[in-house]
Automatic annotation (TrEMBL):
Source organism phylogeny: Bacteria, Pseudomonadati, Pseudomonadota, Gammaproteobacteria, Oceanospirillales
The keyword Hydrolase appears for this protein: yes
UniProt similarity note: Belongs to the thioesterase PaaI family.
Alphabetical UniProt keywords: Hydrolase
Protein's recorded name: Hotdog fold thioesterase
Species for this entry: Salinicola lusitanus
Boundaries of every Thioesterase domain copy: 51-129
The keyword Protein biosynthesis belongs to this UniProt entry's keyword annotation: no
Length: 141
């Protein structure tokens, strides 16, 4: 059973993110499953830190992008929106090139807060970053 309350497609999500940081660093949405939003991000000059490794901040951008969009797709009431309150990230593996993929899954879907877990892995399926995102559900406007 799907957790999504608002209609969405991968194409619509990509269009929504045009001309934003998401598009600038090359994040692509890859799957909208029943309880998971997946996306990937290139590990290249746009997302490297000065030593040639994936920048931890770029991993956080991927995590917050997936979690934030997923959180809003879970809201049935169009007068509400979900906004980030807090995010943390544990960086456990360095990546120099290729792609990383994240999957955002809910831990709690409440009427005033949501809690999301975002797991980011390298192309071999190894954990790169584990993030937790707390979202506040607020009135739009």
């Amino acid at each position: 059973m799907s957790i999504w309350k608002r209609p969405a497609s991968l194409e619509a999500l990509a269009t929504q993110c045009q001309q934003t940081l998401v598009a600038h660093i090359g994040i692509e949405f890859t799957e909208l499953g029943d309880d998971c939003l997946r996306g990937r991000m290139p590990v290249d000059a746009r997302t490297h830190q000065p030593y040639g490794l994936l920048h931890g901040g770029a991993s956080v951008v991927l995590a917050e992008t997936l979690g934030s969009i997923a959180a809003n797709l879970c809201l049935a009431d169009e007068s509400k929106m979900a906004v980030g309150m807090e995010i943390n990230a544990n960086h456990v593996r360095a990546v120099r090139e290729g792609w990383v993929e994240g999957c955002a899954r809910p831990l709690h879907l409440g009427s005033t807060t949501q809690l999301w877990e975002i797991r980011i892995e390298d192309e071999r399926g190894r954990l790169v970053c584990m993030s937790r995102l707390t979202m506040a559900v607020v009135n739009r406007g």
